[in-house]
Batch of 4 targets.
Target 1
Amino acid sequence: MRPARPSHQLPAAPPSRLATKAGEQVRLAAVAVLALLIGLAPAVAQEPEDSYSQTPAELVPYRGVGRPYDEFLREPPEFRGPGRDRPEPELPAEIRLGVLVPTEGLDVPEGRRMRHGVELALTEANAEGGYRGAPFVALYRDESQAWGASGNAAVELVFDQGVWAIVGALEDNASHVMSRLLLKVETPVVNTAGTDPTLTEHMVPWMVRMRPDDRRTGYRLAHRIFEEDGLEKVAVFRANDRYARMGIIEFNDAARRLHRPIALEVRFENHETSWPNQIERLRTVAPDAIVLWGRPAVAGRVLAALRTSGLSQPVYGPDRLLDPILLETAGGYAEGLVTTYPFDPNGGSDGWSEFRRRYLAAAGEEPDAVAAYAYEGTRYLVQAIREAGLNRVRIRDRLFARTEWRGVTGTIRFDATWNNVAPVVLCRVRDGQFVVE
């Protein structure tokens, strides 16, 4: 006699033909997926052969899992619209270029140096004959911190003043607004001072950038702090503005990918004069190092406050801190500060010492990176106009035609977004001066 079946169990029904077929399909699919995974196993272990923006292998996102199905920012931005066949107009009395610079606020010193760099470049270009005998003329406008102001200035420069191209701006807020506008006004822009890594990632086919961005800065600082100096716990003390908020992102990401995530990030307002609460939080965390990110005048005062409060950890920062204003505001407390710099003025680049002499004679002050790239970008634009003629689309094509440009700052190397990815260097304050290491 067979044992009774437990009451809570139901007799198993014979599988239907449909269920049998579905189960077989599932098994076949599983086998196919397994075979695919086995076949892809060697590729999963491979690192990409190259990376966006010259990202070091150890900082590539999701490294170790193989090539993604698709990658963005690998192809140059293209303009497929009309305009290249427009005939060149009768030679005007002057070739007008728009220039956006800050004329008020914290960035006035940088705006002054930008202007000096542009003026020197155009003075030299006109001494060489200008454009077919017509002089290049710069029309300056205040880029302003207000959203939309730079767009209004660009519209006025293009449609009322007839500029052929624009140089600027310093503040990335202004440049982001203008990048959207470029799709409508179809006028090339050479950005010489912005450092926001996302600026050229819109792939707007009208803007090129001459200066290395904060992505390059973040990578170099991370390598110095964690790999070369062997520090583990790092805190960030940054300004509560767009410049610092966007600038620190790549450094923070790099720290995380090196398995040393930021221990603490605190912020300061540019109008503040003391920071007791933030400094106390830093003291509580007791980091091995502090990364200070902000404009040089304010950052100098913050650095002095850190030192007078007894925090003696090494301090690092971006290239914008390399400014005489920081040395003035920090005084002797700046000693030992390590910053990046977008090029090596002692690296034997063609014409740097001669450029320094000419700029000093014309401007009455030493050139810095802001002045150098303003000069560099203006010369780059002048050359494009001379090659393309007075046609904005063709000028745009010439700006995007080169992958390298040799100038007073060394060799500028453009990536697929036409952003300068040349290596940056490190500087340290020694005996009250910035010295390239």
Note: Residues 95-212+349-422 form a domain with the Rossmann fold fold (CATH 3.40.50.2300).
Target 2
Amino acid sequence: MAKIRIKGITNRWLINSFGVAFVIIIGVLVFSSYSVKQYYYSGIEQSISGRSNELANFYGNNTTSKEFLTSAVGYVENFPDKNMMEIMVLDSNGDVVITSSGFENDDTKPIPDYEEAIASNNVYGKWTGKLSSGENVLSVTRVIYNLSGANVGAIRYIVSLEPANRQIFLNISFIFLGVLSVLFMTILSGAYFIRSIIKPAKRLTETAHYIAQGDFNTKIEKEYDDEIGDLCDAVNNMASELGAAEKMKNDFISSVSHELRTPLTAIKGWAETMQLSGANPDPYTMEKGMSVIIKETERLSGIVEELLDFSRIQSGRIVLIMERMDILAELDEAVYMLNERAISEEKHIIFNEPETVSPIIGDKNRIKQVFLNIIDNALKYSNPGGIINVIATEENGNIVIVISDEGQGIAKEDLPRVKEKFFKANTTVRGSGIGLALCDEIVRLHNGSLIIDSEKDVGTTVTVVIPTASNNQSGGKETQ
């Protein structure tokens, strides 16, 4: 069986609302019709019953049927409400003796209420139905017994229900109109409410479409300070974040392209120079060219390896070979590897090395990679004559490495983002923008922390905190 699909929130809401409204209307009409009808019919029945009780109390002492009939005939003739109801006097056999209307009763027609009264213990019977004329009536019969318990006759009251039915119809009509009015107002207010959702939803859809096409500057206007408004804010924030990420990605691609192009240009230039030297190349030129090619090749290899490491971290595929190690040995080697460059750039690295510190559980190559990256950044952002201080201490079960410089520093607004991937506070200095993000992740995998403090035009301090082997919960296991 094919499943019927109703597209659109408005259509579904209208169908559901009208379905519920229809059930409510039917329920209210049925209940109100029954209640109003019972109210009017019960009122009429109680009025007639009261009169019959008075009559029974008055004529109940009659000892014979003849005496009852004589008194009852007088009662009928003097009955004050003949215009409101008809009265019949029946003898002990159930035959009609006299009616207040003056018309003879059709003896062929049964009298259900009389038969019920005779059969019941409370000598009272009622019947609702239509006469042969088609008139809808309510009839009540009260059988009269004398003191000895003999049936001396009965009084039957017949009341037309047509006026009551008209009143019932009017009341139900008013109730129906009232219910319709309430439902109409409810549906009207609901439609307005749905519209207040549909309209922003359509704008959200359009905005999402623009964002999907790369237009991250598009914004959606917030009209309501509610969940819809929060959703609008979330979409706008998403667009801003995607725009920032897109810009960061483009800057990263541009930066990496520049980083790759620079050594490639040097390699190509010296290779062409060496090729043009002919069969008898100048030894000095050859030596210098090969030196540049090797240096720039190593630089290219470092950039590619950094990108691969970042990719491994992003995908969770980085492998750390964890073992007990001397962190000072790796720090000392990193300082030694960059000291020659510092001298060539007229900068100074001062390493205050303690005699000894406790071993740690870590990956030697990755720890050294962190130190090389941080010291490399310190050199890049330091001016000639600048000093880079490297201090190692052991505090409270942690090895604390502090690397500080007197360089350009980082602006206050950029400081919280320097460990984000692709972010570069200074785009004029070479670098891919993923070095600190990579260092932060490596330190985190060693259960440590990397803290950066900086002030613009004053300098930057990077603190690496790694727990000692006795304080490390990793237990020296390999981590992937």
Note: The radius of gyration is 52 Å.
Target 3
Amino acid sequence: MNLPGHQRPTFVRALLERSLEIARATPEVFTTLPDAAALGRIREVTHWQDTPLSALPVTVKDLFDVEGEVTTAGSRVLGPGGVGRAPARRDATAVARLRAAGATLFGRTNMSEFAFSGVGVNPHFGTPPNPADTRAARIPGGSTSGGAVSVANGCAWVALGSDTGGSLRIPAALCGVVGFKSTARLVSGNGVFPLAPSLDTVGAITRSVRDAALAHQILSGRPAAGDTRPLARLRLAVVRGLLLQDLDDTVSRAYARALSVLSAGGAQLVEIELPELDEVATQAAALGTFPAAESHALHRGWLDAHNALYDPRVLGRIRRGASMLAADYLDLLAWRADWQRRVGAQLQGFDAVLSPTVPMVAPPLAQVAPGAERDEAFFRTNGLLLRNPTLVNLLDGCALSLPCHRPESGELPVGLMLWHTALQDDGVLHAAALVENTLRESALGGLHRGAIGMQP
């Protein structure tokens, strides 16, 4: 922030006041808005904080414990009429690290109930409006729905969230912002209400790759490894097959254009086959899934007493976990370990893999809103949204979604996903920064050429 020191407090106060104005105008984004005490602290910002976030507004997904507040995970089950959770006695580790970095915690954001959906619909607290299209009500994506919207509409600088099968990257892609899922073990999940501990990852949604890298350094408590290689020195895999199936026209066009721009910019793009990806659906059908089994283990004591408080779509998926045998669960663990080894061997020698984050732009909310008559459309949409990103969670890998659409041409947001195996986070972030810059320069160049009568 290149402002003289004496001007910075004024800037931060104005930014936070503007964030509060946006938050109050979009109540569906939050389960808890900043209270009067928080507003008082905002107005008392009188000096520049020499910290990484310097009082900037950060929203917190309603999965994370915040001292003195009740974590409800976007559900009524954990509230007063249900389990009746007590207020948290301390901050989740991720929240504490953001506080230590100087963040102004700016409300708890709405989400898919118990983080069990990539669509972002919540029948209890409403569905956050996707700001990418003000003419039509479109889904925000989930499960970190409110977090993505809070960044996309300018309310938050960073949104703290989680990712079990794409819950950071899906809403980032549909809302036109950046979502980074790190290698799970790098960021503590202490104080976070779980969905499937085998897959759960703590991370952030931001406005840029640079901010994503900063947020990751704060959350992981480790500096990034330096990498100064240019785009032309990167070797990027482009996987044919499953990841490119069922793309809608906007995603297909934006993805093809992004690859063309990167190739013209000097990136080494290598098409590969990765048949191991096709195994996932077969294994899930035969053995079950981690979210169903692990969420049932957590919820089974509440299901009968509080079943009426659950979103029926979530309740049904949790109950499926009851039918999974212990032997099947152990077989699934063994298959996953072997599958990770085989996929990792195929990706050796590449700096990152490129794919569309999700195969569609955000569909209208009316198609998938709560209601049994729309369940078929909801589950079809949910399956498509989860298909690509959840593969990275199974891989125990890292991935970043960044925008690759052209909003100036009227395109709805499209996400480009860069991903790799475990502990390749720094390399993926470096590659993503170069890709983001190359795509931005191409878009700006196209606008300039169009202004003087040339074709982009």
Note: Confidence is low (pLDDT under 50) at residues 447-456.
Target 4
Amino acid sequence: MNVKLKPEKYLRYLVPINLFGTRRTREILNQNPTIIPIREDSKEVKITVYDYNATSLEFHELDDVNECFRYLSTQTVSWINIDGIRKADVEALCNFFLVHPLIQEDILSINQRPKMDDVDNILFCLLNMLYYNQEKKSVEQEQISIVLGKNFVLSFQEDASRDVFNSLREKLKLTNSRIRQGGADYLCYTMLDLIVDHYYIVMDHLGDQIEDLEEEVVRSSTHRSLAKINLFRKELIVLKRNISPVRDLVNGFIRSDSELLDDRSTKYFKDVYDHIVQANDLSETYRDMMINMHDLYLNNVNLKMNEVMKVMAIVTCLLAPATVIGGIFGMNFDTIPWLHNPYGFFGAVVVMLIIPIWMLWMFRKRGWF
């Protein structure tokens, strides 16, 4: 029988870099805002438009960004969503909708910190949607830019295959839904709310993994447990880095005096603010759990070492009397008591057994083990 072995499947566990995820560390820390990254144009671009009011809804999938220009002058609310970013499309659309060049640079940026800006009667926010990869056991992020103007919302996403807005699309199909009754600011709030709510789904996945890891550390701590702890601590860094700034982002909408935001919308943004504060606190809790778990691992290692040293010390103590007795009777003298006695050997063996048994009884009585 021919068996085809795949050594690369097992050799990767022998390499410390792969085991402890140093490549992931470079991905997390390799973010320098002073270096302008070069974004490659997406191969696939998907443009969708929802144009609606309280009584009507139009949905279109467009092939060219120039077809979106007619939605600037409509009295209805228009949501133009672009999945897949191309520099030419972003500049053409933003120039027509009078979006400031600085905002355009943020849209085209990579690994940008979540932020909110109010420029030339345009509200802009940039943040990351988070996903949990079950296979890689890692947190993945996708940058999304949202531009709020008068009666329109522009959203730019990097990935054309996934987002968190499916429930929003379903609500738009309902005539009596609250989003159909609201304006563009309510649409912007709903998008932010869905992104923040999805953070909890990612944290739930991480929480389940952390609970399993904690049980593994308590039962049997190994070097692989330490590797898992380090990997999860890195994922929590990604989580914290993306969640914490969103609090200031939402707070910017609450404090904004822009005419684009209705006074009634403020309470909705406050609800998102409460959610992001709770998410931030939960991420802090997870980080504290990982720190405590790391300490628990070190304590378990020290405890095992102490147990080993205690057993070795007890064995050494129990063998000490036999060593002393054997050494005395092994001395090279002509006259030694019981040396030529026919029962001397058996007497010495009995003494060698009695003394360790007495020592064990004393150790147990004093509670040394």
Note: Residues 307-365 form a domain with the Methane Monooxygenase Hydroxylase; Chain G, domain 1 fold (CATH 1.20.58).
